[in-house]
Design goal:
cilium; 9 helices; ParA/MinD_ATPase; alpha/beta; ATP hydrolysis activity; Rossmann fold; eight-stranded mixed sheet
C-alpha cells in the first residue's frame, strides 16, 4: 500500500554534536517498533551512518550516477531492519553539473522512499551550505541537534535564522544531546529557545533529549547502535521515537 511518510531531516550548525548517532539510533528504534524506516545519509562530507551501523552498502547514489547505473541497487537493508541509502562515501565534485545530477538522483530515490516507508530520516551535513539546504527543503520537519556548548548553540541559531528568514512557517524541532540529566537538558533547551524567541520571534518544538553516556561512546567504537542494549540511552531514544510516531511534535513534558 502506498503511504506518505514523515520525512525528518536532522541538522546541526556544526559537527561533533552527535547528529549522526542520534539519527541512526532513532531510525533503528522506530524499526524495532515495527515501522518501515529509511535512513538517507545525505552528509556529503562525512557519511557516517554506514560506519556507525557497521554496514557496507553495495553502492552510493553518487556511485550510481557516475556509473550511469540503476538506482535500485543503492538501498541497503541493515541488520536492524532499516533501509540505508548513502548519498556519497566521499565528497563529490563541486562542479554544478555533477551536483545537479546528484540532487536529481536523490530526489528520485527520496520519492520512492516516501512511497514505501513510514519514516524517512535524513542525516544532513553539518553547517548551512547547499547539501544542508537540499535536505531541509525536502523535509516535513527539520530537527536541530544541539549540545550545551556555546559554539554549537550559536551555529544552530544561525541555521534556524537562515531557515526562518527564508520561510517563517518552516517546521523546526529540537533535540538536546549529551545532556547530563533532565535538568541540564531542560536548561539547554530553554536557553536556546529564549535566544530564538528574542531575536527571531519564535522557538523550535522540543522533541526530546539524549543523555551523555559512556555506553553511547562504546557503541560508536563498537559500530553497534546503543539501542540494541538496555539502558538510559535506549529509554531516551524510545521516548524520542514515541514523540516522532505521534507526529504532533508538541513540547516534550520533560522539557516543557
Amino acid at each position: 500500500m502506498e503511504v506518505t511518510s514523515n520525512v525528518l531531516t536532522f541538522a546541526s550548525g556544526k559537527g561533533g554534536v552527535g547528529k549522526s548517532v542520534v539519527t541512526t539510533n532513532l531510525a533503528e528504534t522506530l524499526a524495532r517498533e515495527g515501522h518501515r524506516v529509511a535512513l538517507l545519509d545525505a552528509d556529503l562530507g562525512q557519511s557516517d551512518a554506514a560506519v556507525l551501523l557497521n554496514e557496507a552498502p553495495a553502492t552510493t547514489v553518487w556511485g550510481a550516477v557516475q556509473e550511469d547505473a540503476a538506482l535500485r541497487a543503492v538501498p541497503h537493508e541493515t541488520e536492524g531492519g532499516v533501509t540505508l541509502v548513502q548519498a556519497a562515501n566521499r565528497p563529490p565534485p563541486e562542479a554544478p553539473d555533477a551536483r545537479d545530477a546528484l540532487y536529481a538522483a536523490l530526489d528520485t530515490l527520496l520519492g520512492r522512499l516516501r512511497e514505501t516507508h513510514d519514516y524517512v530520516l535524513v542525516d544532513a551535513s553539518a553547517g548551512t551550505d547547499g547539501p544542508v539546504q537540499w535536505a531541509l527543503d525536502r523535509a516535513d520537519l527539520g530537527v536541530l541537534v544541539v549540545v550545551g556548548e556555546p559554539t554549537a548553540v550559536a551555529d544552530a541559531y544561525r541555521l534556524a535564522k537562515q531557515l526562518w528568514s527564508a520561510d517563517p512557517d518552516y517546521p523546526l524541532g529540537l533535540v538536546v544531546n549529551f545532556a547530563e540529566d533532565e535538568d541540564d537538558a531542560r536548561s539547554i533547551g530553554e536557553r536556546f529557545k529564549a535566544v530564538t524567541t528574542r531575536f527571531l520571534g519564535q522557538a523550535p518544538k522540543t522533541l526530546g533529549w539524549i543523555p551523555f553516556s559512556h555506553a553511547v561512546r562504546r557503541s560508536v567504537s563498537d559500530q553497534t547502535p546503543v539501542v540494541r542494549s538496555e539502558g538510559p540511552a535506549r529509554d531516551a531514544f524510545a521516548d524520542l521515537a514515541d514523540t516522532t510516531a505521534r507526529g504532533q511534535y508538541a513540547l516534550s513534558p520533560a522539557l516543557s
